[in-house]
Design a protein that fits this description.
The chain is about 45% helix and about 15% strand. The protein is of the alpha+beta class.
Length: about 325
């Protein structure tokens, strides 16, 4: 192994970190708000979500391009089909990145750090890439939860679409490392917020890990164009639609942040199919979380109910309501 880094030690630490609490994350890494907002139990704001997602996508495309170049140079012992895996993974990460930039995302860093032998040791490359892709998948699942709470189902589905592709990448790098690719019945939902993923990835963002070297510059436009030119021959589908594609310009992160919201208190709040206490319970609004509302109704007993933009009703006395709720239409 390279100077100062133990494969077993690094992987053990990242596995433990992925299951740790937010308090443990801060204690272990002391990560800065330069990378993410404080984890106080509230949802990440939308700009944080897309900024961190863009950072992850830029890191992933940097990572895969370096591996492709190392394989082409003979430094990383991969078969041609495995290099093709990486090329199509690179293309997917760049498309995700372009989408996030179109929404106003700004990556928090532009250069990255890696373990010294990452691109010459296939086993290390496979295992550390799995750690990263597992974190990416969990972060997008967290983003889907946040978008759902904001009443933006198209963006929630788009986040889930990206999470599914990141999980495919995780399976492929496990296969490269000769480990069972499809070893899970459910992808891990390790993070409540996107910012919870930062400690897992922080050594790659600031070089704080033992034996990390860099910075490694991100792909150039020429790098991206060269691999995109191979898309058709690789069988890569670059025109797959994403759910948010048909959202109107008004449905941007900035506008979503101005939605009328309700917030649950210290306990979960039942979401009912109809605005009455005998209606079926379709889900819960988790304690201390918020959701967008788009309408209101008074039940036969004179109790006020709010309609969630994502569907279902919550009773007014079980939530705190944001400004503008009184002006919402009756339903």
């Amino acid at each position: 192994m390279g100077q100062g880094i133990s494969r077993r030690g690094f992987l053990k630490n990242t596995t433990l970190i992925a299951g740790a609490s937010a308090v443990s994350f801060n204690a272990l890494f002391g990560f800065s708000r330069a990378f993410a907002q404080d984890m106080t139990g509230t949802d990440d704001d939308l700009q944080t979500v897309i900024n961190l997602a863009a950072t992850a996508e830029l890191f992933a495309s940097t990572h895969y391009l370096a591996a492709i170049n190392a394989a082409n140079n003979g430094d990383l012992d991969l078969a041609e089909v495995q290099v093709n895996y990486l090329k199509t993974a690179f293309l997917a990460e760049r498309e995700h990145y372009d989408l996030l930039l179109s929404l106003g995302a700004q990556p928090v860093v532009q250069e990255f750090y890696v373990p010294e032998t990452l691109f010459s040791d296939v086993d290390l490359f496979s295992q550390i890439t799995e750690v990263a892709e597992t974190a990416f998948t969990a972060a997008y699942l967290a983003a889907a939860r946040i978008f759902t709470n904001l009443g933006q189902p198209a963006f929630a589905v788009t986040a889930a679409q990206i999470a599914a592709v990141e999980a495919e990448h995780r399976a492929l790098v496990r296969q490269i490392g000769r480990r069972l690719p499809n070893n899970l019945s459910y992808e891990k939902f390790d993070f409540n917020n996107v910012s919870d993923a930062v400690p897992v990835l922080q050594p790659f963002l600031d070089g704080s890990g033992d034996g990390f070297i860099g910075p490694v510059a991100p792909p150039t436009e020429a790098d991206v164009a060269a691999i995109r030119a191979e898309a058709a021959s690789l069988g890569y589908m670059s025109t797959t639609p994403y759910a948010a594609m048909e959202m109107t310009p008004a449905a941007t992160p900035e506008m979503m942040g101005s939605a009328v919201m309700v917030t649950a208190g210290a306990g979960n709040v039942n979401i009912r199919r109809e605005p009455n206490t005998s209606a079926a319970i379709d889900g819960v609004l988790s304690a201390n979380t918020s959701a967008a509302i788009d309408g209101q109704r008074m039940d036969d007993a004179g109790m006020q109910w709010w309609h969630l933009s994502s569907g279902g009703w919550v009773r007014a006395d079980t939530v705190t309501v944001g400004e503008g709720a009184a002006n919402l239409p009756g339903m």
